[in-house]
Amino acid sequence: MKDVEDVATADPALDFVQLLTPDGVRVQHDDFDYAGTDADLAAALRDMVLSRRIDTEATALQRKGELGLWPPLLGQEAAQVGSARALKPSDEAVPSYREHAVAWCRGIDPLELLAPFRGTDMIGWDSVATRFHLYSFVIGSQTLHATGIAMAQQLDGRVGNEDPEQNAATIVYFGDGATSQGDVNEAFVFAASFNAPIVFFCQNNQWAISEPIALQSRIPLYRRARGYGFPGVRVDGNDVLAVQAVTTWALERARNGEGPTLIEAHTYRMGAHTTSDDPTKYRSRAETEAWRAKDPISRLRTYLMNAGAIDQVWLGALEVESVALAVRIREGCISLPEPRLSDWFDRAYAQTPAAIRRQGDVQRAREEA
Amino acid sequence: MRTFNLPDPGEGLVEAEIVSWRVAVGDTVAVNDILLEIETSKSLVELPSPWAGRVTQLLVSEGQVIPIGSPIVVIDDGEHPITGNVLDVDAPGPKSPETPAEDAEPQLLVGYGAKESVITPRPRRGATVAPIIPAAEVHETYTTEQPVSRPVDEPKPTARVDAEPSGDGLPDPGEPDSDFTVPRPILASPGARRLAREIGANLEGIRGTGPNGVITEDDVQRAADEGTARDRRVRLKGVRRQMFNSMTASRAVPQASAWVEADLSATMTLVDTLRARREFANLRVSPLMIVAKAACLALQKHPQLNSSWDATTDEVVLHGDVNLGIAAATPRGLVVPNIKRANTLTLHGLTTALNEMVVTAREGRVRPIDMTGGTFTITNVGVFGIDSGVPILNPGESAILCLGTITRRPWVVGTGADERIVPRWVTTLSVTFDHRLVDGEQGSRFLGDVATILADPALSLLF
To answer: Among B45, B107, B110, whose Cβ lies nearest the Cβ of A63?
Structure first.
């Protein structure tokens, strides 16, 4: 694969990995290639379409008063699906709070994603079983947690084994704005110092709420990695092939004990930062329209249609599946169970002390009476 | 039949304005079809329909501001039969049995009703109530006058101790740098921003009349009607603010002006001679250098034009040296740096100093010390091809000399039979002086002396 030093010092103008153009044409890259088949790509398209539908429905549910807040992922489907599909089941994924498509790929029920935004639950999914960790609303803090998780994998002997099945790595998601946080920089330092098996996956969606990327960094973000002593790669974040190829390579480096990698997925947040935000206040319509032409889903659909891998029947079936998912989300959301006080007695300790368990039982009996 | 209550589309909003309905009574809508657009203090938001069905009632009208949680539209989804007369447009208070049950009791942070039901019962009928902050209420039940916990065997009750100063106070931080301004974002309502975008208006140029100067939709509309929507407003600051202040101050001084046309042909020859000399090889030599030197020489004879008035002692200060200011046009505006003790410099020294000053001014590197202590100023409007002008004083100085453009003009030379018109290098020199300190004779004689030297630089030997 690619020489580390080369990646770290490459010319930023040239160093932009793209394997599928916005027009849906596959192109060659010197260092990276998509290893999967067209059938794999059709599966990726399905993931992207369904996760967009989850997102659209959740945004609408917020507007109907059913959710307190929602951070839309619109436009970032390829970055999330491509990187998630590069993961092996044994890898750990640590999200920020917008990784709904990663959650989908890791098998999280979309209704579990909605619960914290509806205020009926803390984050309820099993992060140990799914290896998809809790959403982190504090900007950038999860990069430190993820570095710790990666260092733990190292201590557990999950790195650099001859048998690849023994190996594992961690991927952590954050945004361009988070790169200005101390936490992220500390995570970079730790990961580099301990050669942690981690992939720092930055979705540069160009806007940290209303602050443009130009205010966050004077150089392309991926080049910062060089200062910490590990490679950085910039990839077309709206190209699922390129994202998956680069992430696969970076995860493999990590599993082999070659240390951390920074991936800057160059993408765009087509929607608002959250449903409480109005992006027309700070960015131009022309800019958003220019990015609409780079849509991750339409380019992949175009490619697969031209390649004959999918057809209208296939797309029709996907639309039926998508509508069914939407109905399930709408109906499931309003039927999410209300939280009960008694639930809280089981949540503070890994092993609940007997006294607290007894109090919980009393409360539960009271609620059921 | 279902009733849709106004949700909270942001976090913790209490009310919203109905901007426009996208549906009418009788329309059939599908799930997620846009029903209406509302404006909150945060944004313009489109609200999608939660149900498929037929719109049977619009309960609020455009322009109305209503609290979060109010019923706004009734949709017949064919499944929930309506019973009884529960949908009274004028009294949105009563709960319909078909209203989702969650509306009836306190909710978590989900959409509607949470704030009003958790915080305080709101009057439902049209009254506006200032939102009560629950934290403040809770906080008042605690007192910080005394520690909450203290030992039972405490010898005496803890009394409040007032803070006392210790040691010397901190030094006075002084005046903030007036040039430093935090860039202020334009405050405008979402509706105003949209209108501005639609009509191509420039929000920077529109005065806001809303709270805290927020630009409202009406402000944008008014500016568009008045034809001023595309104006720009630029904050007066830095060099331009300085010019504004000093020129305003200058107008307080009674000033008089005089001017004279002069033949600068000999000066132009001198400039050519100097340019050919080795010590001037790396310098830009222009007639301005000779004018500066001539002014310094003439000022020695006419010190009133190099004086100032000390208001504190009511004395005229005749300056021992000429700190020669040169008005310079820079990208940031007018600056007048001065050359200290210019009268002591040789022509070569003066040329060097002027060259350096031009470069520093253009690059915006003029130091504050270079801008203060000036005693006399030259302004060269000739560089703009202008014949001449009536300058006004740099405050604190008693005179300013203006050099116009130097062009070939017909000039009468010789006398008697020899009298003829020949083309010569001619310019107009003007001087403005503080008429409280300089009388007309002094001003005129000074200008005459400058013109004499420029007409025949050899005569500078007389000075």
So the answer is: B45
Does B258 fall in a domain? yes
Asked whether the beta carbons of B429 and B388 are under 8 A apart, the reply is yes
Asked if the model's pLDDT at residue A278 lies above 90, the reply is no
* CA-based nearest distance A297→chain B, Å: 21
ipTM surpasses 0.90: no
Name the pTM for this structure. Answer: 0.58
Of B119, B136, B155, the domain-final residue: B119
d(CA B372, CA B385): 29
Query: Which residues in chain A are closer than 8 Å to B47, comparing Cβ atoms?
Result: 63-64
Same domain, yes or no, for B195 and B270? Answer: no
Q: Are residues B197 and B258 in the same domain?
A: no
Q: What residues contact residue B358 under an 8 Å CB cut-off, 6+ apart?
A: B284, B326, B328
* A355 and A281 in a common domain: no
Residues of chain A with Cβ-Cβ distance to B112 below 8 Å are 65
Q: For chain B, say whether A115 makes contact (Cβ under 8 Å).
A: no
Answer whether residue A309 shows pLDDT above 70: yes
Q: In this complex, which of A63, A276, A339 lies closest to B7 when CB atoms are compared?
A: A63
B48 CB near a chain A CB, below 8 Å?
A: yes
Q: Residue A122 belongs to a domain with what CATH number? A: 3.40.50.970
Tell me, yes or no, if B5 comes closer than 8 A to chain A by beta carbon. yes
Q: Which of A57, A61, A64, A336 to mutate to test the interface with B (most CBs of B within 10 A)?
A: A64
- Give φ, ψ of A45 to 5 degrees: -60, -45
Mean of pLDDT values over A108-124: 94
User: Which of A127-131, B115-119, B350-354 shows the lowest mean pLDDT across its residues?
Assistant: B115-119
Mean of pLDDT values over A138-144: 97
For residue B79, tell me if it sits in a domain: yes
- Tell me whether residues A64 and B50 touch, CB distance under 8 A: yes
Q: Which residues of A150-187 are buried (b: 16+ CB within 10 A; e: fewer)?
A: bbebbeeebbeeeeeeebbbbbbbbbbbbbebebbbeb
* B46 Cβ under 8 Å from any chain A Cβ: yes
Same domain, B401 and B275: yes
Written as six digits, the tokens of B403 are: 């050099």
**Which one is catalytic: B80, B139, B348, B435?**
B435
Q: Please check whether residues A82 and A199 belong to one and the same domain.
A: yes
A21, A152: one domain: yes
Domain that holds residue B65: 2-119
Q: How many domains does chain A have?
A: 2
- Give the CB-side neighbour count of residue B327, counting CA atoms within 13 A: 22
Position B232, amino acid: R
Average pLDDT of span B445-451 = 96
The pLDDT assigned to B361 comes to: 83
Q: How confident is the model over B44-100, as pLDDT tens digits? A: 888 999 999 999 999 999 989 999 899 999 999 888 765 444 444 444 443 444 444
- B183-221 pLDDT per residue, tens: 667 889 988 999 998 888 888 888 889 888 899 999 999
Q: For residue A188, what are the domain limits? A: 4-338
B347 and B429 housed in the same domain: yes
Q: How many CB atoms lie within 10 A of CB B183?
A: 5
